[in-house]
Amino acid sequence: MLLAQPETAQRVRQALSGLCELILADLRDLTDHSFNQLSSCVPSLERLSLAYCHLTFERDPTRGSAGAQVSSPFQLSFRNLLQFVKEHAGRLRALDLSGTGLPPEALKALGQVAGLQLRELSLHSCRDLSTEAVATLCCQQPGLTSLDLSGCSDLTDGALLAVSRGLQHLRRLSLGKLQRLTDAGCTALGALQELQSLDMAECCLVSGRELAQALSSGHRAPPPLTTLRLAYCSSLKDASVLSVIPALGPSLRVLDLSSCAALTNRTIQAICTYLTHLSVLRLAWCKELCDWGLLGLEEPNEESTLGSQLHPELEYQVSDAEDPSPKSQGPSLLVLQALQELDLTACSKLTDASLAKNPCLGLRMGPIQSRELPAPVSPQLDSNLFSATCCCLRSWLGGQAHGQAGPRAGEEQTVPPAYPCLRPKAYVSPIP
């Protein structure tokens, strides 16, 4: 290896003297020797990722820690990593050991390193971790602001209770794929007053009832959440989501409810009422969503829709060329003025009527990828979206031609004021 040559190592060390982050993820052949050579070249290291590296462990990870350590030329050992952490404890702030199979004993040994004050720790898919080990970590590293425990399948509600009690400054918490997590564990989330991002995707036993109560705790302000992911939470129903949404507040920017199959138009209308500052909304595979729900129309009765696939108001508007959009009677997606990404994949009850008759919606979705359109997707749907987008652009450009000068050479094309999220790169991708 080149770094084994002293002159080369010295030049590399000088070049990387200010490097703060080292990502060695997925290097399955990384050994103690190569890791030590690389890490010796970055004395200012603050962030280290060894995610999905093949890390080996001993029964007692602290054994033999006093005295010289013998690094291995054939494997990457936790004992060697622990020695590195001890030597850099005063500077190291972020560590990613996702997918390394970290056992409870190793996590405890890591957390108790003298002088170590981690801010970010990712343990995604470390399936052997126990609730007790996480509770100990929360006592050892109370300054954590970001913690990823997604896929740590043995964790229970006790882990979430320990996190909420011990990590008061936590801003980002990932708990995806914790199949043993229930509503009881969510009761303590209200204690995390600085929490900004919460990922509970694929927590199938979480119905949202206790989450709503935790977020709307009367004696304390709700946490300033900007991101909430509840995708694939199969226990979510309209009733619980309707309780959660008003408690989220105006700070929320990203909401993912993909594959929550029981959700209906009541949920989308609540979103349009309370979460008007959303920039990303994912509703893929929410198969109960209909055109009238997205457009804020009154729910049709069975007689009015008998023999027709369209909402009566939409059917009327389709035949009326002079009125380009249905008359909204309630909150609709059109009120989400900041929306930049909308995922309606496989929302099979949606038709092109709700999109084609509302070109503003198509424009505000930004770069529309085919995966974001209802499936099955017909060429006519894509054609209607394209026509609607062109119609809006023609209207705007026509106004410029009559009253405003176009951009000069070298100037950036401006965006129509009515469509604040439209950018010159917005397009409708062709369906393959």
Descriptive notes:
Keywords: Ubl conjugation pathway. It holds the Pfam family DUF7885. Residues 117-272 form the F-box/LRR-repeat protein 15-like leucin rich repeat domain. This protein has 432 residues and is of the alpha/beta class. The strands form two sheets. It has an eleven-stranded parallel β-sheet, with no helix packed on it. Strands 3-4 form a two-stranded parallel sheet. The longest helix is centred in the last third of the chain and has 25 residues, at 379-403. The chain has 16 helices and 13 strands. Helix 10 links the parallel strand 11 and strand 12 (280-282). The radius of gyration is 27 Å and the shape is elongated. The model is unreliable at 304-311, 316-326, 363-381 and 386-432 (pLDDT under 50).
Along the chain, the helix and strand elements come as: HEHEEEHEHEHEHEHEHEHEHEHHHEHHH
Fraction of residues in β-strands: 5-15%
- Span between termini: 47 Å
Rounded average pLDDT? 79
> Tally of extended strands?
13
Judged by helices, strands and strand pairing, the structural class is alpha/beta
The strands making up the biggest β-sheet line up spatially as: 1-2-5-6-7-8-9-10-11-12-13
Unreliable spans are 304-311, 316-326, 363-381, 386-432
Main sheet record: 11 strands, parallel
- What's the tally of helices? 16
Shape: elongated
Radius of gyration: 27 Å
Instruction: Determine the fraction of residues in helical runs and give it as a percent range.
Output: 25-40%
